[in-house]
Predict the 3D structure of the following.
Amino acid sequence: MTNPKNGASPRRNRKPTAFRIDDRRVQEPLEEAETLERDRAPVAGSPAEAGPRVDQARRFGWGKLFAIGAGGLLSLGFGLAIDALIRDLFTRNDWLGWAGVVLAAMVALGLFGLALREIGSLLRLKRIDELRMTLAEAADGDDEKRARQGLAELIQLYKARPETAAGRRQLREHMREIIDGRDLVTLAERDLLSPLDARARRIVTDSAKRVSVVTAVSPRAIVDLLMVLYENFRLIRRLSDLYGGRPGFLGFLRLFRKVVTHLAVTGGMAAGDSLVSQLLGHGLAARLSARLGEGVVNGLLTARIGIAAIDVCRPAPFVSGRGPTVSDVTAELFRSDPQAKALLEEVENAGGKDA
Amino acid sequence: MARRPFLARVADEARYAIDNLSEYATDLAVPTVRLGVTGLARSGKTVFISALIHNLMHGGRLPLFDVASSGRLAKAMLEPQPDDDVPRFDVEAHVAALVDERVWPESTRQVSELRLTIEYESAEFFSRTFGRGRLHLDIVDYPGEWLLDLPLLDKDYREFSQEALATANKANRRNLAVDYLALLAGADPAAEARENTARELSAVYRRYLAACRADEHSLSMLPPGRFLMPGDLEGSPALTFAPLDIGEDAGPFRHGSLAAMMERRFEAYKTHVVRPFFRDHFARLDRQIVLVDALHALNAGPSALADLEAALGEILTAFRPGRASWLFSVLSRRIDRILFAATKADHLNREDHDRLENILARLVERGARHAKFHGADVEVMAIAAVRATREASVKANGDKLPAILGTPLPGEVVDGETYDGETEIALFPGDLPDNLDDLFAGDAVSAPDVRFVRFRPPKLERTAEGVSLSLPHIRLDRALQFLLGDRLA
């Protein structure tokens, strides 16, 4: 309580003064659009983010050297091949040559578009990461200015999403009042993000359910392996789309890597909170039926990946409450949904008959 | 504590226990929370209660008050209060003054009470299934000055006289007390008791206390509290006494002397005024909010600030904070949450709110520590129950000043210009200090150059249907969440 908080400017001894309201120097707070523009500017160049990126760019690696060389050679080779092809086409027939040129131009244009989209998606992901950092700092330091910046960004991020209209409107109203930094972030979580969180949880549960059922009924191991892979990729993608990331191919790879890292980091914690019950559950399930056990394990894996993906994709940290946990999902997965339960039981019965 | 006879204390405690026991029984049907609202004169008690009730009843914007923002608050309505012998808080008149006439309501003169019944839906399974979904909120409003009397319970007349005279002789008060000290010089404690002398002494002493409280001095440490707010005891012997100049080693007072009469009246004051208040109102509170107008004291200078600190220290030792165990909660109530609120935060731009909070935290440091030690939750906040200003920035001399926009009350003066109560101005009130040690050092050089002006209540916007919107506020919702949030979970 006794330290001035981060947001406060240093104290100066300025004389109290009164101004007439029609004085040209008196300015009411800016209109919202301007506030958004003004608030957004400083976030982009936030010093906390600039540090590590410089280091990364500067680092020298043999692999990088190899990649640059190989990439260059490959593209030269492609260019040469296309060039040769078009020359060949021209020697054969003029119109064939022109058709070749047009096709090559389409390829080039398409490539350009793809690259643009990839860059856009990478930037978007980076923006979300930065936003999460801003909001986390604002919540930790109870810093009103940073919270306002973050909220303005958040509103901007979901501007094109009609289903968040109510939340954005509420948030804008909150921003007009005097509310502390931490509380602002809490409000953003509650009013704008909680509907998205509910849907994210739904998505994770659905995926986990599908994976466990398919694993339990699939005839071949390779089928459920592919299914698990496919379903998990789709899960990460859908979550990222939901929170506004919309990753392209490269963006997706980056996201995937982050999810796996996050999983490795938080894995220990998650193991701690529910290891006993999970082990007990698996043991029981596996004893009942090997296939059902596998289904449960794969479902849990999917749930865990989903939770990690939520943490990575969400543009804000969980401030007021804890985020969804694996046990939330599994609870819904195996207990409260009679359909899944019935399905699992059916599978179990069928398995029993086969044997 | 040693001075109060042991038996009297046991008897007091037994009475509190019996009262609480019967209340506990009624609580089983519908739970009750008794919220004490106090603060020294003009700290904004009446406005706080009016705004609280208005916002709860009219669905005000309370985003941080969970029960309201999540839509679980079904209804809040006024109900007859449980204590028939306590005046009712006249909320209708106060709200009308605020909203329709745009004047601040009249101040608290005596203890008053109001019951607000809140119907809500609990978010927890157990209480949703088995609870009644109702909570009686009994708001008890009492002048903070009366709290300054509570320490008197443990003092006798000699101690009281010595302390009162020592205070009156302090540098910042001697000028105000000059009449009284002169009169005292001519009064012999051992002389024959005369009603006229007593009345004269008492009247002059009261004038001195009133002078201390006036705007330009804004001192706070002024016991006995009823001298300034006599209520219905005006003129009774229990209020017609004054401290006398009694030597350290004077023997027992001679029967029939002036000193003996004064001592008897002082004891009567304790028995008939202080103790009933403590028993009937103070010992039964669950939650307490202490409103402090730190800005007013800052305006008046360092001695007012030091005096405010002393007064708050006295007040806070009077509380019975702590977390009573479930078993003992049947017998004795404890205040388990205390909120210290620096009111009138709307007189500052938001940039200075943190500094205001720090100043308040420093003012109530002693009391807060005491309360925390006993296990109560304590929080400090800068709030404005009714927000009378808007924020703006002013470019002046190449600097951007954080200012506020509002309509000053008629008669307020800034830079020699007197306002009529209709013109709106932008005011930069000055910077609050970061370094509190300078501020509390008490010399005039380091005193911050600040000027706070009283503004008129805000003009309420009306929707197209003619429904008036709720009163704007600053952090009232957070205050409510702290005070009541857990009871409405």
